[in-house]
Design brief:
By secondary structure, the chain is α/β, with parallel strands linked by helices. It has a single domain, classed as Metal-dependent hydrolases (TIM Barrel). The protein is built from eleven helices and eleven strands. The strands form three sheets. A six-stranded parallel β-sheet has the order 6-7-8-9-10-11. Helix 1 runs parallel beside helix 2 and helix 3 packs parallel to helix 4. The protein is globular.
Length: 308
């Protein structure tokens, strides 16, 4: 990793070594028409989450909420200052279904989307105090056949990455094609695999998929602990164990991915540190949770930031 790389938080750029324990995929704020009545939109509740996470030992919180989904841009910096937790925000775009029918960027060319992403990465988030900038680009794969929306957002994310250096985080679906995502971002658009974070790998039951992706050099975000009792959560530990045994511990990140009020009530980011990390330490030794929660995020989130 270049000595000049930094991680972009809502309060400014940090040396990777300053991140400490990191929840690499989560949400303080999010809304979607697919999740009616489950919006995370309360700043006071978000502050409670960050304080509980900090009390458990958390130091950095990475929010993958992209443009148009209520990412709380106006309060993220204040929450970070109040709690002492570094917050990394996102630009980018989710699947079209997460936006109202009249606001899905349907005809928007990828060049215009890329310009939006680059502007946020270099100038700041709309509605936020001056200088509050995101530190990653969030996009999503499709459930089923590839859509025109996803082709546009993928091309835009790659263009914005090349212009700014920002890492790209990708939401995956259980019936999607993670290798197709990698072929498009890396093979077609020239994004280095180590600049790509693939989320929701526990949704795929075939361990060969996990191993082959890790061997390509991408980072894998194992991010189901907020879904207590969900099949993806139940297999998370076994997926981690399998990848560690296969020699891919340096590709793994951990996140709680709290997307609903229900998930926040029963899990949340503190559970990474009070449940999953101790289990990993008991099985593999304390160096493994340190690698997945500290060392790997410091590499995956750091960038050689550029201004076009």
């Amino acid at each position: 990793m270049s000595a000049t790389r930094t991680v972009r938080t809502v309060l400014g750029d940090l040396a990777p070594a300053e991140l400490g324990v990191t929840d690499s995929h989560d949400h303080l704020f999010i809304r979607s028409p697919l999740l009616p009545g489950q919006e995370l939109d309360d700043p006071a509740a978000a502050e409670e989450v960050l304080r509980a996470y900090a009390a458990a030992g958390g130091r950095t919180f990475v929010q993958w909420t992209p443009w148009g989904m209520g990412r709380g841009a106006d309060v993220l910096a204040a929450l970070s200052r109040a709690t002492g937790v570094h917050v990394v925000a996102a630009t980018g775009t989710h699947q079209a279904a997460h936006y109202p029918e009249d606001d899905r960027s349907g005809p928007t060319p990828s060049a215009d989307l890329a310009e939006r992403f680059v502007t946020e990465l270099t100038t700041g988030l709309p509605g936020a105090p001056e200088g509050v900038r995101p530190g990653l680009i969030k996009i999503a794969d499709d459930a089923g056949p590839l859509t025109a929306h996803t082709r546009r957002t993928t091309a835009a994310a790659a263009e914005a990455h090349h212009a700014t250096g920002a890492p790209i985080a990708v939401h995956l679906e259980p019936d999607g094609d993670p290798h197709g995502v990698l072929r498009r971002l890396h093979g077609r658009h020239g994004v280095s695999p180590d600049r790509i974070v693939l989320g929701h790998l526990t949704r795929f039951t075939d361990r060969a998929v996990h191993r082959s992706l890790a061997a390509e050099g991408v980072f894998l975000a194992l991010d189901s602990p907020s879904r207590i009792g969900h099949p993806a959560d139940l297999q998370a530990f076994d997926v981690i164990a399998d990848l560690v045994d296969a020699g891919h511990a340096d590709r793994l990140l951990l996140g709680a991915d709290t997307t609903t009020r229900t998930a926040r009530a029963v899990g949340g980011p503190a559970r990474l540190l009070t449940d999953l990390a101790p289990r990993l330490a008991r099985t593999f030794g304390p160096e493994l949770p340190d690698r997945l929660l500290v060392a790997n995020p410091a590499t995956a989130l750091a960038a050689d930031w550029r201004t076009p």
